[in-house]
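**User:** Hello, beginner here. Are you able to go through the protein record under this note? It all follows right here:
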Amino acid sequence: MRLALRRGTVTVAEPAEGVTQRLQVDVAGEQRPALAEVEMVGLAAVGDDVVVNVAARDLNLGSGGFDVVHVNLTRGLFGQGTPGAHVMKLNYTSLQHAVLPVEGPELRVPIEKPAAVFSLHGHLPPLAFAFAAAAPGARLGYVQSAGGALPGACRASWPSCGSAGCSLGTSPPGRHTAARARRSPSRRAPPRP
């Protein structure tokens, strides 16, 4: 299995929104939407030569309506990594990099608060809605597994949380994501399909 990588040129570079930057990339004459995770590959500018992973968009995945910048060849070859990081992600691959783990010395196991475990990021909106209904104004934490790499800000399913009265804050992949469960008592649950 090979990565579906294509070389292209950035034609539109929007300002970064948190940890992501929306781009348009010309790949073999086709304008394709792309996202760059700024902490991983840096900011891109119009004219930059980039390599994008086209797999999710080419497969028409629901949350993959865009390509992902794999490397910025113009300005991204001088990354220094995260100072003080010591835990490896994507071990023994060309994408391995050190991170600062969420589970610092203050983590106590077993966790003394309720926890939910689910396998798909698309399950977060209904969980956040139920949590907001049960505990208005409370905070809900979301820890993305090491295998999950899509930043929360990029998830197509998350805007539905806003319509359910929840607001989601994000942080980079592999770190915690906070969902602020704010729900107006007068707001009704969306109808079930």
